Amino acid sequence: MNSKQLQYFLITVQKGSIAGAARELDIAQPAISQQLANLEREMGATLLERSFRGISLTAAGELFAAHARKLMSEINSAKRELQQLVANQEGTVRVGMLPSVGNVLSMSLISSVNQLFPKLKLEISTGPSYSVREWLEKGQVDIAITYEQDVVASVMDCEPLIEENMYLVLGVSEQSQIYRSLQHRQSINFWELSEYELLTPGPKDALGKLIASYEQSTGVALKHDKAYSGQLMTGLRQVMQGEGLMILPSSATFHLEESQLLKAIKIVSPEMKRTVLLATNRNVPINDASLKMISVIKRVVAQVQQLDQWRGVLAPDVESAQALPVERLTVFN
């Protein structure tokens, strides 16, 4: 017995004749008659009474028809679910993230998705934290990688990825008095930051909120007078040119540190850090494609942390994720 036989049987019953079923299915009558005869032979019972007026169900046919309807319903349901699964596996997943996160994740994430799920298409959008939040709220991205300072609990379902360390970042120049005074330092107290002109984003940005919270908790007022566009790459260029210092995570600067264009000094007393979260919109069901993308994101985060490109403490769920083969990663400069 197969689904074709069930389909022919049920449509013949519905139309009341083999001729009617042939017209409905656009199939020759002998083909339908043969399938029905094979079905009755396999079931070991006469299912249809045939006459010049058409067909009618026997008692065995009535019993079989009830089961046939259930079976066809299950088969059609399975087809729909499988089609949806295939569509999800071959679908597009839109991920929003901040430029600092994109700097350390984008290229390796694209490479890993291509390797592990080649039918998935990844679209990455980068922007300030408040933009990433708005994209998720409006359904313009499926997954957001953002900071705890920009969480809206009523909209977002969040899980931690990494608690990242924050650093004072300065340009490397022997002509700079600031660099000469700090070049051998591996850590710096938070209160000491008040001695330097800083390039900081406004209070609307998650980093601006973080800095303001540390100023409030420590009672240390920092200098925010330097002109800053709020664009990470522009700010880093200003730092390299000696126009100010920045407070940033290693994800934003590791490539410039490796090139010895910047120096990053860990901020301590108190240790300055923040939690990076993976967020989805709680009002939108998560499909299979997004679940696969989340698994890849966790593995890539674990990889770049292992490479010391993103310094901090992994969340337990990320730490236990199976790591991809470790290799040097290409990043945006």
TrEMBL record:
UniProt key word Cytoplasm: no
Keyword Ion transport found: no
Molecular functions per Gene Ontology: DNA binding; DNA-binding transcription factor activity
Signal peptide extent: none
Pfam families named among the record's database cross-references: HTH_1 (PF00126), LysR_substrate (PF03466)
Keywords assigned by UniProt, alphabetized: DNA-binding, Transcription, Transcription regulation
Residues annotated as domain HTH lysR-type: 1-58
Family (UniProt): Belongs to the LysR transcriptional regulatory family.
PANTHER family cross-referenced by the UniProt entry: HTH-TYPE TRANSCRIPTIONAL REGULATOR YBHD, NITROGEN ASSIMILATION TRANSCRIPTIONAL ACTIVATOR-RELATED
Name recorded for this polypeptide: LysR family transcriptional regulator
Source organism (scientific name): Alteromonas aestuariivivens
